[in-house]
């Protein structure tokens, strides 16, 4: 029998899911009537990430499109990064609301925009949503990376994997740690249960800050045979 607190969490998650489907839509930024979470007037105002001004490997900005110093000396396990936006206001508030205030209906529109900015010539063979640990998934009720990845898979007609990459360490929240601790925190956090020999893969997530989580996931995918791992994120920190 479920504990009372767990039953309460499940009921809360069910209600949030129901409301996300049936509630009338309005723009989260200006409250104007909108069929999507963001109206067409607000989209152009969002802070864009620009590939031409960023490190092609980690997405760090202000490198004029060249590899940053960190990627030249100690490159991450992933090979390329694409981001739709910079992780500044109002994007940071949108993502925080989606993850921690159960406004997950914000995520698919952001994923659809991410799908639009990834170039045709860099298309992977498959998409993999960065997983949460099962305990974190039960707590939150959804995986933000999956909600972002679904419209991308549909628009690009790519297979989406949501359970082959598994998070086996219930790590400390990355946001609570400094940069060095984030990399230590993620060591050995992921395993991949399939065979990726000769495959090009894109990992989908909401935000890249240090890149530690995506690096740990990319290591697991390359151990499974992937020849290239791209990181596709809604937002990259400046």
Automatic annotation (TrEMBL):
<comment type="similarity">
    <text>Belongs to the ComF/GntX family.</text>
</comment>
<dbReference type="Pfam" id="PF18912">
    <property type="entry name" value="DZR_2"/>
</dbReference>
<dbReference type="InterPro" id="IPR044005">
    <property type="entry name" value="DZR_2"/>
</dbReference>
<dbReference type="InterPro" id="IPR000836">
    <property type="entry name" value="PRTase_dom"/>
</dbReference>
<protein>
    <submittedName>
        <fullName>ComF family protein</fullName>
    </submittedName>
</protein>
<feature type="domain" description="Double zinc ribbon">
    <location>
        <begin position="19"/>
        <end position="72"/>
    </location>
</feature>
<dbReference type="InterPro" id="IPR029057">
    <property type="entry name" value="PRTase-like"/>
</dbReference>
<dbReference type="InterPro" id="IPR051910">
    <property type="entry name" value="ComF/GntX_DNA_util-trans"/>
</dbReference>
